């Protein structure tokens, strides 16, 4: 495939998978004076950047974008390199085979090959630069959830930026604020990408941590809670890749027509194509539409019980646990043998910490708790919706881990335990 045709393929494939949400999001750029019904795409109309001509270039992608392969995009919105001292992070996105627990491996989108993505841990006020390179054949972005970044860095495709195309690098630059437990996730194809499993923790420490005065914790854990339908993920990834293959083949035969393959200049043109039956939007097809997700694996930091990482504590020690819900379901995390202190929500310290033993963890939200080691033993910490404490329907499993006292000599252990 030539460079130009490859870019055209990727561009069109992006639109095909971008769906109508993208269309309506960009309807503010509608220009009635330029409306004509679509003609088949013509290679000669491509300019040197591989972008379709103005007629077709302004609809699905924001004005001024560039689509040259391998290019690095640095949008405005934060100080230049020589104005502040940036902490740099390189992030890429690939499809990896991830082992949820022994015997269960499945393909997922993964930042730097990890599920969840790498934890970014910085101090409030730090200047951050993330060089994000897309190593898949799908579109992606990164949204910085709960951070007050400039809008150009917010990572919402078709609203604040073009999606990051295969092979491209997009540079996110912003100041780390406000402090607290925050996170990041992909904002393209969110039901698949963000939950399966393009998400990770973004922890911002205060320079002087006031919570440490009341809760002098010496260790902390970050737990990203995940709910997966691995059959949905497999189906979606395969169908996306297959769809891109078909688009590629049609394009090479010169049979790819913009209005029949989801490449519109504005909302009116999109609506007209649907109303006249020229274009069938993806949400009318069988794909994921109409198929309720059937979550079958529940994980903490990428692993289901008994593969989950244990929490360690000593007698007389405070530990801090940061809970981040990276999935689409609600969880109710219950700790046996202890009341803990709920001290922060969405990264912000609560005026009045509350003493509880079960905490709701809603989609998109983060919660911080402090646990005091005053009851030596082995204590489970799990979602009290016990349907989520299963692996493919088999109990026990899923969203469960164990709080283990390190300096504890057990006086009794059961004869059969998968945990010992
Ligand atoms: Cu993505």
List keywords for this structure.
6-stranded mixed beta sheet; alpha+beta; Immunoglobulin-like; 31% strand; 420 residues; 6 helices; binds copper (II) ion; 3 domains; 5-stranded mixed beta sheet
Topology:
Layout: H1 3-25, H2 54-57, E1 72-73, E2 86-101, E3 104-111, E4 120-123, E5 127-134, E6 143-145, E7 169-175, E8 180-185, H3 190-193, E9 199-205, H4 211-214, E10 219-228, H5 230-252, H6 267-275, E11 297-300, E12 311-313, E13 318-325, E14 331-335, E15 340-345, E16 348-356, E17 358-361, E18 366-372, E19 378-383, E20 400-405
Parallel strand pairs: 1-7, 2-5, 4-9, 10-13, 12-20
Antiparallel strand pairs: 2-3, 5-7, 6-8, 8-9, 10-11, 13-18, 14-17, 14-19, 15-16, 15-18, 19-20
What does this structure look like?
- By secondary structure, the chain is α+β, with helices and mostly antiparallel strands.
- It has three domains: 3-69 and 232-284, no CATH class; 72-208, Sandwich (Immunoglobulin-like); 297-405, Sandwich (Immunoglobulin-like), CATH 2.60.40.
- 16% of the residues lie in helices and 31% in strands.
- The chain is built from six helices and 20 strands.
- Strands 11-10-13-18-15-16 form a six-stranded mixed beta sheet. Strands 1-7-5-2-3 form a five-stranded mixed beta sheet.
- The longest helix has 23 residues, at 3-25.
- The chain is globular.
- Residues 1-67 have low confidence and may be disordered.
- Residues 109, 140, 186, 188-189, 193, 198 line the site of copper (II) ion.
